[in-house]
Design brief:
The complex is a heterodimer of chains A (143) and B (432). Chain A is α+β, with helices and mostly antiparallel strands and 143 residues long. Helices cover 29% and strands 36% of the residues of chain A. Chain A has 4 helices and 6 strands. The relative contact order of chain A is 0.22. With 432 residues, chain B is α/β, with parallel strands linked by helices. Chain B has 2 domains: 7-327, Rossmann fold; 333-428, GMP Synthetase, Chain A, domain 3 (2-Layer Sandwich), CATH 3.30.300. The radius of gyration of chain B is 22 Å and the shape is globular. The two termini of chain B are 32 Å apart.
Protein backbone atom coordinates (compact mmCIF):
# COMPACT_ATOMS: atom_id res chain seq x y z
CA UNK A 1 0.00 0.00 0.00
CA UNK A 2 1.63 3.23 -1.09
CA UNK A 3 0.91 6.84 -0.26
CA UNK A 4 1.35 9.73 -2.73
CA UNK A 5 4.10 12.17 -1.86
CA UNK A 6 4.48 15.60 -3.47
CA UNK A 7 8.04 16.91 -3.91
CA UNK A 8 8.48 20.58 -4.73
CA UNK A 9 11.63 22.37 -5.96
CA UNK A 10 12.58 25.12 -3.54
CA UNK A 11 15.09 27.80 -4.28
CA UNK A 12 16.83 28.81 -1.08
CA UNK A 13 15.49 32.28 -0.71
CA UNK A 14 13.41 33.99 1.91
CA UNK A 15 9.70 33.29 1.80
CA UNK A 16 9.66 30.31 -0.57
CA UNK A 17 8.47 27.83 2.02
CA UNK A 18 6.00 30.31 3.53
CA UNK A 19 4.54 30.85 0.03
CA UNK A 20 3.82 27.16 -0.31
CA UNK A 21 2.32 26.63 3.14
CA UNK A 22 0.24 29.74 2.59
CA UNK A 23 -1.15 28.48 -0.72
CA UNK A 24 -2.00 25.13 0.86
CA UNK A 25 -3.65 26.73 3.86
CA UNK A 26 -5.79 29.05 1.70
CA UNK A 27 -7.01 25.99 -0.16
CA UNK A 28 -7.82 24.05 2.98
CA UNK A 29 -5.13 21.45 2.35
CA UNK A 30 -3.84 19.85 5.51
CA UNK A 31 -0.25 18.65 5.77
CA UNK A 32 0.37 15.30 7.40
CA UNK A 33 4.13 15.17 7.03
CA UNK A 34 6.85 17.49 5.78
CA UNK A 35 10.53 17.05 5.06
CA UNK A 36 13.19 19.19 3.39
CA UNK A 37 16.48 18.10 1.87
CA UNK A 38 18.71 20.96 0.83
CA UNK A 39 22.05 22.13 -0.57
CA UNK A 40 23.36 25.66 -0.12
CA UNK A 41 21.38 26.93 -3.12
CA UNK A 42 18.21 24.87 -3.38
CA UNK A 43 16.18 22.15 -1.75
CA UNK A 44 13.48 19.56 -2.22
CA UNK A 45 10.36 19.94 -0.10
CA UNK A 46 8.51 16.66 0.41
CA UNK A 47 4.91 16.71 1.54
CA UNK A 48 2.24 14.23 2.52
CA UNK A 49 -1.09 16.06 2.45
CA UNK A 50 -4.68 15.04 2.95
CA UNK A 51 -5.57 15.77 -0.69
CA UNK A 52 -2.55 15.21 -2.92
CA UNK A 53 -4.24 15.71 -6.28
CA UNK A 54 -5.80 19.00 -5.19
CA UNK A 55 -2.54 20.22 -3.65
CA UNK A 56 -0.45 19.29 -6.69
CA UNK A 57 -2.77 20.97 -9.18
CA UNK A 58 -2.84 24.16 -7.11
CA UNK A 59 0.95 24.26 -6.79
CA UNK A 60 1.42 23.55 -10.51
CA UNK A 61 -0.98 26.38 -11.30
CA UNK A 62 1.19 28.65 -9.18
CA UNK A 63 4.21 27.76 -11.28
CA UNK A 64 6.01 25.42 -8.91
CA UNK A 65 8.01 22.48 -10.22
CA UNK A 66 6.89 19.28 -8.55
CA UNK A 67 6.78 15.55 -8.87
CA UNK A 68 4.55 12.87 -7.32
CA UNK A 69 6.18 9.76 -5.93
CA UNK A 70 4.70 6.68 -4.24
CA UNK A 71 6.13 6.18 -0.76
CA UNK A 72 5.40 3.66 1.98
CA UNK A 73 4.10 4.60 5.42
CA UNK A 74 5.25 2.16 8.07
CA UNK A 75 3.79 1.79 11.54
CA UNK A 76 6.61 1.84 14.04
CA UNK A 77 6.27 1.09 17.72
CA UNK A 78 6.80 4.35 19.65
CA UNK A 79 9.27 2.75 22.04
CA UNK A 80 13.06 2.57 22.19
CA UNK A 81 14.28 0.29 19.40
CA UNK A 82 11.04 0.58 17.41
CA UNK A 83 12.63 2.11 14.33
CA UNK A 84 15.74 0.03 14.71
CA UNK A 85 13.71 -3.16 14.38
CA UNK A 86 12.03 -1.98 11.18
CA UNK A 87 15.33 -0.81 9.66
CA UNK A 88 16.89 -4.16 10.53
CA UNK A 89 14.22 -6.00 8.57
CA UNK A 90 14.60 -3.68 5.57
CA UNK A 91 18.35 -3.89 5.64
CA UNK A 92 18.43 -7.70 5.85
CA UNK A 93 16.16 -7.79 2.79
CA UNK A 94 18.81 -5.79 0.91
CA UNK A 95 16.52 -2.81 0.27
CA UNK A 96 18.17 0.61 0.03
CA UNK A 97 16.28 3.42 1.70
CA UNK A 98 16.68 6.59 -0.37
CA UNK A 99 15.31 8.70 2.46
CA UNK A 100 12.75 8.58 5.27
CA UNK A 101 10.99 10.95 7.62
CA UNK A 102 8.23 10.89 10.22
CA UNK A 103 4.55 11.80 10.15
CA UNK A 104 3.09 14.30 12.63
CA UNK A 105 0.97 13.38 15.67
CA UNK A 106 0.33 9.64 15.70
CA UNK A 107 -1.54 8.15 18.63
CA UNK A 108 -1.84 4.86 20.52
CA UNK A 109 1.85 4.27 21.14
CA UNK A 110 2.56 4.19 17.41
CA UNK A 111 4.75 6.37 15.23
CA UNK A 112 4.62 6.43 11.46
CA UNK A 113 7.65 6.68 9.21
CA UNK A 114 7.55 7.45 5.50
CA UNK A 115 10.02 5.40 3.44
CA UNK A 116 11.18 6.12 -0.09
CA UNK A 117 12.64 3.08 -1.84
CA UNK A 118 13.07 2.11 -5.48
CA UNK A 119 10.82 -0.96 -5.24
CA UNK A 120 7.80 -0.20 -3.05
CA UNK A 121 6.15 -3.60 -3.70
CA UNK A 122 9.16 -5.44 -2.45
CA UNK A 123 9.29 -3.29 0.67
CA UNK A 124 5.61 -3.88 1.36
CA UNK A 125 5.93 -7.65 1.06
CA UNK A 126 9.08 -7.81 3.18
CA UNK A 127 7.37 -5.80 5.90
CA UNK A 128 4.27 -7.99 5.71
CA UNK A 129 6.33 -11.19 6.01
CA UNK A 130 7.84 -9.74 9.16
CA UNK A 131 4.54 -8.72 10.67
CA UNK A 132 5.14 -4.99 10.31
CA UNK A 133 2.08 -3.13 9.08
CA UNK A 134 2.08 -0.43 6.46
CA UNK A 135 -0.19 2.55 6.78
CA UNK A 136 -3.11 3.09 4.46
CA UNK A 137 -4.18 6.49 3.25
CA UNK A 138 -7.26 6.24 5.46
CA UNK A 139 -5.29 5.58 8.59
CA UNK A 140 -3.27 8.74 7.88
CA UNK A 141 -6.38 10.79 7.23
CA UNK A 142 -5.75 11.18 3.50
CA UNK A 143 -8.65 11.55 1.09
CA UNK B 1 66.06 57.25 -20.15
CA UNK B 2 63.74 55.48 -22.54
CA UNK B 3 64.93 52.05 -23.62
CA UNK B 4 64.07 50.39 -26.91
CA UNK B 5 64.52 46.87 -28.17
CA UNK B 6 64.60 47.94 -31.84
CA UNK B 7 65.04 51.68 -31.67
CA UNK B 8 65.31 52.32 -35.40
CA UNK B 9 62.03 50.59 -36.04
CA UNK B 10 60.20 51.84 -32.97
CA UNK B 11 61.10 55.48 -33.61
CA UNK B 12 61.02 55.42 -37.41
CA UNK B 13 59.29 58.34 -39.09
CA UNK B 14 55.83 58.04 -40.55
CA UNK B 15 57.03 57.80 -44.17
CA UNK B 16 59.33 54.93 -43.30
CA UNK B 17 56.60 53.03 -41.46
CA UNK B 18 54.23 53.56 -44.37
CA UNK B 19 56.86 52.37 -46.82
CA UNK B 20 57.29 49.16 -44.84
CA UNK B 21 53.56 48.69 -44.63
CA UNK B 22 53.00 49.25 -48.35
CA UNK B 23 55.70 46.83 -49.37
CA UNK B 24 54.73 44.13 -46.88
CA UNK B 25 51.00 44.40 -47.51
CA UNK B 26 51.41 43.89 -51.26
CA UNK B 27 53.63 40.89 -50.60
CA UNK B 28 51.28 39.45 -48.01
CA UNK B 29 48.23 39.74 -50.26
CA UNK B 30 50.11 37.90 -53.00
CA UNK B 31 51.20 35.25 -50.44
CA UNK B 32 47.65 34.43 -49.31
CA UNK B 33 46.27 34.60 -52.85
CA UNK B 34 48.86 32.05 -53.98
CA UNK B 35 48.74 29.76 -50.95
CA UNK B 36 45.34 29.93 -49.27
CA UNK B 37 42.33 28.92 -51.41
CA UNK B 38 40.00 30.16 -48.64
CA UNK B 39 41.38 33.71 -48.95
CA UNK B 40 41.42 33.59 -52.70
CA UNK B 41 37.74 32.58 -52.74
CA UNK B 42 36.89 35.39 -50.32
CA UNK B 43 38.77 37.94 -52.42
CA UNK B 44 37.21 36.67 -55.62
CA UNK B 45 33.83 36.93 -53.95
CA UNK B 46 34.50 40.64 -53.49
CA UNK B 47 35.98 40.99 -56.97
CA UNK B 48 39.47 41.83 -55.70
CA UNK B 49 42.76 40.49 -57.01
CA UNK B 50 46.30 41.14 -55.73
CA UNK B 51 46.74 43.69 -58.53
CA UNK B 52 44.11 45.89 -56.84
CA UNK B 53 46.20 46.19 -53.68
CA UNK B 54 49.10 48.53 -54.37
CA UNK B 55 49.38 50.23 -50.96
CA UNK B 56 47.75 50.68 -47.55
CA UNK B 57 45.31 53.05 -49.28
CA UNK B 58 43.79 50.01 -50.99
CA UNK B 59 43.39 48.00 -47.79
CA UNK B 60 39.68 48.79 -47.53
CA UNK B 61 39.04 46.85 -50.74
CA UNK B 62 39.89 43.56 -49.03
CA UNK B 63 37.16 41.49 -47.39
CA UNK B 64 37.05 41.24 -43.61
CA UNK B 65 38.01 38.09 -41.79
CA UNK B 66 36.04 37.11 -38.67
CA UNK B 67 36.14 34.51 -35.97
CA UNK B 68 33.47 32.65 -37.98
CA UNK B 69 35.96 32.32 -40.82
CA UNK B 70 38.54 30.88 -38.43
CA UNK B 71 35.97 28.42 -37.20
CA UNK B 72 34.93 27.44 -40.69
CA UNK B 73 38.51 27.03 -41.82
CA UNK B 74 39.54 25.03 -38.74
CA UNK B 75 42.09 23.57 -38.52
CA UNK B 76 44.16 24.02 -41.70
CA UNK B 77 41.96 26.17 -43.94
CA UNK B 78 43.89 29.40 -43.38
CA UNK B 79 47.35 27.87 -43.23
CA UNK B 80 49.63 29.64 -45.71
CA UNK B 81 52.78 27.54 -45.28
CA UNK B 82 53.40 23.81 -45.60
CA UNK B 83 53.10 22.09 -42.22
CA UNK B 84 56.74 21.06 -42.42
CA UNK B 85 57.66 24.76 -42.14
CA UNK B 86 55.51 25.24 -39.02
CA UNK B 87 57.01 24.76 -35.59
CA UNK B 88 54.29 25.79 -33.14
CA UNK B 89 50.60 26.19 -32.51
CA UNK B 90 48.79 28.25 -29.92
CA UNK B 91 45.09 28.09 -29.33
CA UNK B 92 42.15 29.85 -27.82
CA UNK B 93 38.51 28.96 -27.38
CA UNK B 94 36.15 30.02 -30.13
CA UNK B 95 32.40 30.31 -30.36
CA UNK B 96 30.24 27.21 -29.88
CA UNK B 97 33.19 25.26 -28.65
CA UNK B 98 35.37 25.09 -31.69
CA UNK B 99 38.82 26.33 -30.86
CA UNK B 100 40.93 28.74 -32.85
CA UNK B 101 44.31 27.24 -33.71
CA UNK B 102 47.06 29.57 -34.89
CA UNK B 103 50.21 28.26 -36.59
CA UNK B 104 53.72 29.68 -36.43
CA UNK B 105 56.86 29.21 -38.48
CA UNK B 106 60.15 29.79 -36.63
CA UNK B 107 60.23 33.21 -38.29
CA UNK B 108 56.73 33.95 -36.92
CA UNK B 109 57.83 32.96 -33.42
CA UNK B 110 60.89 35.21 -33.75
CA UNK B 111 58.87 38.25 -34.78
CA UNK B 112 56.29 37.62 -32.04
CA UNK B 113 59.03 37.41 -29.45
CA UNK B 114 60.55 40.63 -30.83
CA UNK B 115 57.21 42.34 -30.20
CA UNK B 116 57.16 41.06 -26.62
CA UNK B 117 60.77 42.11 -26.16
CA UNK B 118 59.80 45.65 -27.21
CA UNK B 119 57.10 45.61 -24.53
CA UNK B 120 59.52 44.44 -21.85
CA UNK B 121 62.11 47.10 -22.72
CA UNK B 122 59.42 49.78 -22.87
CA UNK B 123 58.66 48.77 -19.28
CA UNK B 124 62.31 49.43 -18.43
CA UNK B 125 63.58 45.86 -18.82
CA UNK B 126 67.26 45.08 -19.55
CA UNK B 127 69.48 42.00 -19.49
CA UNK B 128 70.04 42.67 -15.78
CA UNK B 129 66.40 42.07 -14.94
CA UNK B 130 64.72 38.99 -13.53
CA UNK B 131 61.46 38.49 -15.40
CA UNK B 132 58.81 36.51 -13.50
CA UNK B 133 56.27 35.17 -16.01
CA UNK B 134 53.12 33.82 -14.41
CA UNK B 135 50.83 33.89 -17.41
CA UNK B 136 49.72 30.37 -18.24
CA UNK B 137 52.12 28.37 -20.39
CA UNK B 138 50.80 25.96 -22.95
CA UNK B 139 48.14 26.65 -25.56
CA UNK B 140 47.51 30.09 -24.05
CA UNK B 141 49.78 32.68 -25.70
CA UNK B 142 50.56 34.71 -22.57
CA UNK B 143 53.28 32.52 -21.06
CA UNK B 144 55.13 31.52 -24.24
CA UNK B 145 55.01 35.08 -25.66
CA UNK B 146 56.43 36.93 -22.66
CA UNK B 147 58.85 34.06 -22.00
CA UNK B 148 60.29 34.43 -25.51
CA UNK B 149 60.41 38.22 -25.27
CA UNK B 150 62.20 37.99 -21.95
CA UNK B 151 64.82 35.69 -23.47
CA UNK B 152 65.36 38.15 -26.33
CA UNK B 153 65.93 41.01 -23.91
CA UNK B 154 68.31 38.77 -21.99
CA UNK B 155 66.45 38.83 -18.69
CA UNK B 156 66.81 35.90 -16.35
CA UNK B 157 63.42 34.36 -17.05
CA UNK B 158 61.35 32.60 -14.40
CA UNK B 159 58.85 30.41 -16.30
CA UNK B 160 56.44 30.17 -13.37
CA UNK B 161 53.18 29.73 -15.28
CA UNK B 162 49.97 30.37 -13.33
CA UNK B 163 48.76 29.19 -9.93
CA UNK B 164 50.46 28.01 -6.74
CA UNK B 165 50.75 31.36 -5.01
CA UNK B 166 53.13 30.09 -2.32
CA UNK B 167 55.66 29.03 -4.92
CA UNK B 168 55.17 32.26 -6.90
CA UNK B 169 55.98 34.36 -3.85
CA UNK B 170 58.90 32.20 -2.80
CA UNK B 171 60.60 32.55 -6.21
CA UNK B 172 59.70 36.22 -6.45
CA UNK B 173 61.45 36.87 -3.13
CA UNK B 174 64.36 34.39 -3.32
CA UNK B 175 65.31 35.11 -6.95
CA UNK B 176 64.63 38.84 -6.60
CA UNK B 177 62.26 39.18 -9.54
CA UNK B 178 62.16 42.73 -10.93
CA UNK B 179 59.51 42.43 -13.67
CA UNK B 180 56.19 40.67 -13.23
CA UNK B 181 54.17 39.43 -16.21
CA UNK B 182 50.62 38.17 -15.60
CA UNK B 183 46.97 39.14 -15.85
CA UNK B 184 46.09 42.32 -13.94
CA UNK B 185 43.69 40.43 -11.69
CA UNK B 186 46.40 37.96 -10.74
CA UNK B 187 48.78 40.88 -10.12
CA UNK B 188 46.21 42.42 -7.78
CA UNK B 189 45.80 39.08 -6.05
CA UNK B 190 49.57 38.68 -5.64
CA UNK B 191 49.77 42.24 -4.30
CA UNK B 192 47.19 41.37 -1.64
CA UNK B 193 49.04 38.18 -0.73
CA UNK B 194 52.34 40.06 -0.46
CA UNK B 195 50.74 42.51 1.97
CA UNK B 196 49.06 39.81 4.02
CA UNK B 197 52.33 37.96 4.45
CA UNK B 198 54.35 41.06 5.20
CA UNK B 199 56.62 40.53 2.19
CA UNK B 200 56.40 44.07 0.87
CA UNK B 201 60.00 44.88 1.95
CA UNK B 202 61.36 41.64 0.56
CA UNK B 203 60.25 42.02 -3.05
CA UNK B 204 62.37 43.79 -5.65
CA UNK B 205 59.75 44.34 -8.36
CA UNK B 206 59.98 47.57 -10.33
CA UNK B 207 57.59 46.95 -13.21
CA UNK B 208 54.69 44.78 -14.27
CA UNK B 209 53.36 43.92 -17.73
CA UNK B 210 49.72 43.01 -17.40
CA UNK B 211 47.32 41.98 -20.16
CA UNK B 212 44.85 39.41 -21.49
CA UNK B 213 41.92 41.05 -19.72
CA UNK B 214 40.39 44.46 -19.25
CA UNK B 215 41.52 46.58 -16.31
CA UNK B 216 40.74 50.06 -15.17
CA UNK B 217 42.96 53.02 -14.38
CA UNK B 218 41.91 52.62 -10.72
CA UNK B 219 43.12 49.05 -10.76
CA UNK B 220 46.44 50.22 -12.21
CA UNK B 221 46.86 52.78 -9.42
CA UNK B 222 45.97 50.18 -6.83
CA UNK B 223 48.53 47.64 -8.12
CA UNK B 224 51.19 50.33 -8.53
CA UNK B 225 50.71 51.58 -4.98
CA UNK B 226 50.57 48.19 -3.38
CA UNK B 227 53.65 46.82 -5.14
CA UNK B 228 55.59 50.05 -5.60
CA UNK B 229 55.95 49.40 -9.33
CA UNK B 230 54.90 50.85 -12.66
CA UNK B 231 52.19 48.77 -14.25
CA UNK B 232 52.10 48.55 -18.07
CA UNK B 233 49.33 47.30 -20.30
CA UNK B 234 49.96 44.88 -23.16
CA UNK B 235 47.55 43.81 -25.90
CA UNK B 236 47.25 40.97 -28.31
CA UNK B 237 45.15 38.07 -29.39
CA UNK B 238 45.98 34.53 -30.36
CA UNK B 239 44.74 35.13 -33.90
CA UNK B 240 47.36 37.85 -34.44
CA UNK B 241 50.18 35.89 -32.68
CA UNK B 242 49.50 36.76 -29.04
CA UNK B 243 50.52 39.50 -26.59
CA UNK B 244 52.79 42.19 -27.96
CA UNK B 245 50.67 43.39 -30.85
CA UNK B 246 50.56 46.62 -28.84
CA UNK B 247 52.18 47.67 -25.58
CA UNK B 248 52.44 50.63 -23.25
CA UNK B 249 55.47 52.88 -22.87
CA UNK B 250 56.55 55.09 -19.96
CA UNK B 251 53.81 57.60 -20.79
CA UNK B 252 51.11 55.02 -19.93
CA UNK B 253 48.53 56.73 -22.14
CA UNK B 254 47.73 53.98 -24.60
CA UNK B 255 49.50 51.15 -26.33
CA UNK B 256 51.83 51.48 -29.33
CA UNK B 257 50.79 49.08 -32.05
CA UNK B 258 53.77 47.43 -33.75
CA UNK B 259 52.97 48.93 -37.11
CA UNK B 260 55.85 47.28 -38.91
CA UNK B 261 53.97 44.00 -38.35
CA UNK B 262 50.33 45.04 -38.05
CA UNK B 263 48.19 47.57 -39.88
CA UNK B 264 45.39 48.82 -37.65
CA UNK B 265 42.05 50.21 -38.80
CA UNK B 266 39.01 51.39 -36.89
CA UNK B 267 35.67 50.52 -38.47
CA UNK B 268 32.02 51.02 -37.75
CA UNK B 269 31.04 47.57 -36.46
CA UNK B 270 27.59 47.81 -38.06
CA UNK B 271 28.47 49.04 -41.55
CA UNK B 272 32.11 47.93 -41.83
CA UNK B 273 33.01 51.44 -42.98
CA UNK B 274 36.52 52.65 -42.11
CA UNK B 275 36.39 55.55 -39.63
CA UNK B 276 38.79 58.50 -39.44
CA UNK B 277 41.58 58.63 -36.85
CA UNK B 278 40.31 59.44 -33.38
CA UNK B 279 36.93 57.75 -33.90
CA UNK B 280 35.69 55.14 -31.52
CA UNK B 281 35.03 51.87 -33.29
CA UNK B 282 36.04 48.28 -33.83
CA UNK B 283 39.71 47.49 -34.15
CA UNK B 284 40.74 45.58 -37.28
CA UNK B 285 44.21 44.14 -37.82
CA UNK B 286 46.10 43.08 -40.90
CA UNK B 287 49.18 41.03 -40.08
CA UNK B 288 51.72 41.88 -42.80
CA UNK B 289 54.70 39.81 -41.70
CA UNK B 290 53.17 36.58 -40.45
CA UNK B 291 53.96 33.63 -42.68
CA UNK B 292 52.00 30.62 -41.46
CA UNK B 293 48.79 32.26 -40.30
CA UNK B 294 48.51 35.66 -41.94
CA UNK B 295 45.34 37.53 -41.14
CA UNK B 296 43.99 40.17 -43.49
CA UNK B 297 41.54 42.64 -42.00
CA UNK B 298 40.73 40.53 -38.97
CA UNK B 299 37.87 41.94 -36.92
CA UNK B 300 38.96 41.85 -33.28
CA UNK B 301 35.52 42.90 -31.97
CA UNK B 302 37.36 45.12 -29.48
CA UNK B 303 36.10 48.69 -29.41
CA UNK B 304 38.81 51.35 -29.04
CA UNK B 305 40.29 54.59 -30.36
CA UNK B 306 43.53 55.05 -32.34
CA UNK B 307 45.73 58.13 -32.12
CA UNK B 308 48.90 59.34 -33.83
CA UNK B 309 49.55 62.09 -31.33
CA UNK B 310 53.24 62.49 -30.63
CA UNK B 311 54.36 60.40 -27.69
CA UNK B 312 56.94 61.59 -25.18
CA UNK B 313 58.63 58.17 -25.22
CA UNK B 314 59.93 58.81 -28.72
CA UNK B 315 58.06 55.92 -30.30
CA UNK B 316 56.26 56.86 -33.48
CA UNK B 317 53.92 53.90 -33.87
CA UNK B 318 50.20 54.58 -33.60
CA UNK B 319 48.61 54.19 -30.16
CA UNK B 320 45.41 52.37 -29.26
CA UNK B 321 43.34 53.10 -26.18
CA UNK B 322 42.49 50.35 -23.75
CA UNK B 323 39.64 48.35 -25.26
CA UNK B 324 36.39 50.00 -24.13
CA UNK B 325 34.07 47.11 -24.86
CA UNK B 326 33.17 44.53 -27.45
CA UNK B 327 31.10 44.62 -30.60
CA UNK B 328 30.05 41.05 -29.90
CA UNK B 329 28.99 39.34 -26.70
CA UNK B 330 32.34 37.77 -25.83
CA UNK B 331 33.34 37.97 -22.18
CA UNK B 332 36.87 37.73 -20.90
CA UNK B 333 36.87 35.88 -17.59
CA UNK B 334 40.16 35.09 -15.89
CA UNK B 335 41.83 35.96 -19.19
CA UNK B 336 39.78 33.31 -20.98
CA UNK B 337 37.38 34.07 -23.83
CA UNK B 338 33.85 33.06 -22.99
CA UNK B 339 30.90 33.30 -25.35
CA UNK B 340 27.33 33.02 -24.00
CA UNK B 341 26.62 30.76 -26.99
CA UNK B 342 29.14 28.22 -25.65
CA UNK B 343 27.26 28.11 -22.36
CA UNK B 344 23.95 27.80 -24.19
CA UNK B 345 25.29 24.86 -26.21
CA UNK B 346 26.30 23.03 -23.03
CA UNK B 347 22.96 23.72 -21.34
CA UNK B 348 21.01 22.31 -24.26
CA UNK B 349 23.28 19.26 -24.54
CA UNK B 350 22.82 18.58 -20.85
CA UNK B 351 19.05 18.81 -21.06
CA UNK B 352 18.60 22.24 -19.50
CA UNK B 353 16.42 25.00 -20.92
CA UNK B 354 18.05 27.76 -22.97
CA UNK B 355 16.70 30.31 -20.54
CA UNK B 356 19.73 31.25 -18.49
CA UNK B 357 21.68 34.16 -17.12
CA UNK B 358 25.43 34.55 -16.74
CA UNK B 359 26.67 36.59 -13.83
CA UNK B 360 30.29 37.71 -13.94
CA UNK B 361 31.87 39.37 -10.95
CA UNK B 362 35.28 40.13 -9.54
CA UNK B 363 35.64 38.99 -5.95
CA UNK B 364 38.93 39.51 -4.12
CA UNK B 365 40.48 40.53 -7.43
CA UNK B 366 39.56 37.26 -9.04
CA UNK B 367 36.92 36.85 -11.73
CA UNK B 368 33.96 34.63 -11.00
CA UNK B 369 31.33 33.32 -13.37
CA UNK B 370 27.99 31.92 -12.35
CA UNK B 371 25.40 30.38 -14.63
CA UNK B 372 21.82 30.67 -13.40
CA UNK B 373 19.54 28.12 -14.97
CA UNK B 374 15.91 27.30 -14.27
CA UNK B 375 14.78 23.95 -12.89
CA UNK B 376 12.36 22.07 -15.14
CA UNK B 377 9.89 19.26 -14.43
CA UNK B 378 12.02 16.90 -16.54
CA UNK B 379 15.14 17.55 -14.48
CA UNK B 380 13.43 17.62 -11.13
CA UNK B 381 13.38 14.63 -8.80
CA UNK B 382 12.28 13.98 -5.24
CA UNK B 383 15.82 12.66 -4.76
CA UNK B 384 18.21 15.52 -3.98
CA UNK B 385 21.19 13.32 -4.86
CA UNK B 386 19.95 12.96 -8.45
CA UNK B 387 19.65 16.73 -8.81
CA UNK B 388 23.12 17.37 -7.43
CA UNK B 389 24.55 14.63 -9.70
CA UNK B 390 23.03 16.34 -12.71
CA UNK B 391 24.31 19.69 -11.51
CA UNK B 392 27.83 18.26 -11.18
CA UNK B 393 27.55 16.90 -14.72
CA UNK B 394 26.68 20.39 -15.93
CA UNK B 395 29.59 21.94 -14.03
CA UNK B 396 32.09 19.53 -15.60
CA UNK B 397 30.62 19.96 -19.09
CA UNK B 398 30.97 23.74 -18.69
CA UNK B 399 34.54 23.31 -17.48
CA UNK B 400 35.33 21.15 -20.52
CA UNK B 401 33.82 23.73 -22.88
CA UNK B 402 35.12 26.94 -21.29
CA UNK B 403 38.35 25.79 -19.70
CA UNK B 404 37.45 27.52 -16.44
CA UNK B 405 35.20 26.69 -13.51
CA UNK B 406 31.74 28.20 -13.67
CA UNK B 407 29.40 27.91 -10.72
CA UNK B 408 25.93 26.64 -11.56
CA UNK B 409 22.91 27.92 -9.69
CA UNK B 410 19.61 26.12 -10.19
CA UNK B 411 16.72 28.49 -9.68
CA UNK B 412 12.96 28.27 -9.57
CA UNK B 413 11.08 28.39 -12.87
CA UNK B 414 10.32 31.84 -14.25
CA UNK B 415 12.74 33.45 -11.82
CA UNK B 416 15.04 34.57 -14.63
CA UNK B 417 13.64 37.81 -15.98
CA UNK B 418 12.23 37.52 -19.45
CA UNK B 419 12.62 40.92 -20.96
CA UNK B 420 10.71 42.25 -23.92
CA UNK B 421 12.70 41.45 -27.02
CA UNK B 422 16.34 40.75 -26.40
CA UNK B 423 17.03 38.62 -23.34
CA UNK B 424 19.55 39.91 -20.83
CA UNK B 425 21.94 36.99 -20.88
CA UNK B 426 24.91 38.54 -19.16
CA UNK B 427 25.20 40.62 -16.03
CA UNK B 428 28.76 41.83 -15.63
CA UNK B 429 29.19 43.29 -12.15
CA UNK B 430 32.92 43.88 -12.51
CA UNK B 431 33.91 47.49 -12.18
CA UNK B 432 36.47 47.71 -14.94
Amino acid sequence: MTIPQISVFLENKAGQLADITNILSQNQVNMRAINIAETADYGVLRLIVDDASKASSILLEQGFILTMTPVVGVAVSDTPGGLSQVLGVISRAGIDVEYMYSVFGQKDGQACMIFRVADTDKLASVLEENGISTMTGDSLGLH
Amino acid sequence: MERYYQQEIETADREQILAWQNERLVKQVRHVWDNVPYYRAKMEGKGVTPADIQSVEDLHKLPFLTKDDLREAYPYGLLAKPLKDCVRIQSTSGTTGRRVVAFYTQHDVDLWEDCCARAIMAAGGTDEDVCHVCYGYGLFTGGPGLNGGSHKVGCLTLPMSSGNTDRQLQFMVDLEATILCCTPSYAAFLAESIHERGLRDKIKLKAGIFGAEAWSEEMRQDIQNKLGIKAYDIYGLTETSGPGVAFECSEQTGMHINEDHFIAEIIDPDTGEVLPEGSKGELVFTAITKEAFPLLRYRTRDICILTREKCSCGRTHIKMSKPMGRSDDMLIVKGVNVFPSQIETVLLEQGYPANYQIIVDRINNSDTIEVMVEMTSENFSDNLGKITEMEKGLVSALKAMLGIYAKVRLVAPKSITRSEGKAVRVIDKRKI
